[in-house]
Amino acid sequence: MKPALRTKLEESLRAGRYEVSDSNIFANRVTDDLEAVSHDGHLYLNNDPEQYAAAMAPPSSDAGLDAYRKRVALRTK
Question: Are 56 and 67 in contact (CB under 8 A)?
């Protein structure tokens, strides 16, 4: 990570900017800070509770990442 990005994120963390209960607000604030320093619209934090739950599930279960990716692929056909 570039020093300027790290500095910005650490400053925001110390200032309490990320102390929110809504994960979407958290992701938006991190994204805003990343873009403010990098000026790169491709650098962002995405919030996807369903994908997180899949990542935490046993790999071979119906709730695991493979099953999640299959559901996403079927939805975007």
Answer: no
Amino acid in position 33:
D
At 13, phi and psi to the nearest 5?
-65, -50
Q: What is the tens place of the pLDDT at every residue in 14-45?
A: 999 999 999 999 999 999 999 999 999 899 99
Q: Are 59 and 65 in contact (CB under 8 A)?
A: yes
List for the chain the helix, strand, coil content (%; round to 5).
Answer: 60, 0, 40
H or E stretch including 33?
A: helix 23-38
The model's pTM: 0.71
